[in-house]
Design a protein that fits this description.
It is a single chain. With 148 residues, this protein is α+β, with helices and mostly antiparallel strands. It has a domain of 103 residues: Aminopeptidase (3-Layer(aba) Sandwich), CATH 3.40.630.30. Strands 1-2-3-4-6-5 form a 6-stranded mixed beta sheet. The termini are far apart.
Length: 148
């Protein structure tokens, strides 16, 4: 980066350009690679698709990096819940994390979302932070991936 001759501008936005997000992500990844000597960050998605149209109906997104599986987003439409599909999606994400060398997994959910679902699959709460609406919390969870 060239030396700035004036003070940089700070902009707060709810619509950042994809290129701006990519620059921040790529620069942080570059820093982490230099600091750790490991270049293993990879996106991960386990998608549920309509067999006729190929359209994505739901699934899980996340990433792996430095021995951790991060579950970022997980959603199934209500019509697909209760059939074991969510359990299989989570199992496949965890298995892919293991294949990529991850020792642990982390995520956060909200008390009105699915902490019980994750706990039934061996995830443990390591923290909670109150959020809105009043009476709810963000629930931070982890799972040891070294044992199945």
């Amino acid at each position: 980066m060239a030396e700035l001759t004036t003070q940089p501008t700070i902009v707060v936005t709810d619509s950042p350009a994809p290129a701006d997000l990519a620059l921040i992500s790529d620069e942080l990844d570059h820093f982490n690679i230099e600091a750790s000597g490991t270049a293993d960050r990879r996106p991960l998605a386990v998608l549920v698709k309509d067999p006729e149209t190929g359209a994505v109906l739901g699934g899980l997104t996340g990433r792996t990096s430095l021995g951790l599986l991060f579950v970022d987003l997980f959603h199934l439409p209500s019509t697909l819940r209760g059939q074991g599909l969510g359990s299989e999606i989570l199992r496949q994400a965890e298995e892919e994390g293991r294949r990529r060398g991850c020792r642990s997994a982390v995520l956060y959910t909200i008390t009105f979302q699915a902490p019980g679902f994750y706990q039934r699959h061996g995830w443990q709460v390591f923290g909670e932070i109150p959020c809105d609406p009043p009476g709810t919390s963000r629930v931070f969870m982890t799972k040891d991936l070294t044992s199945t």
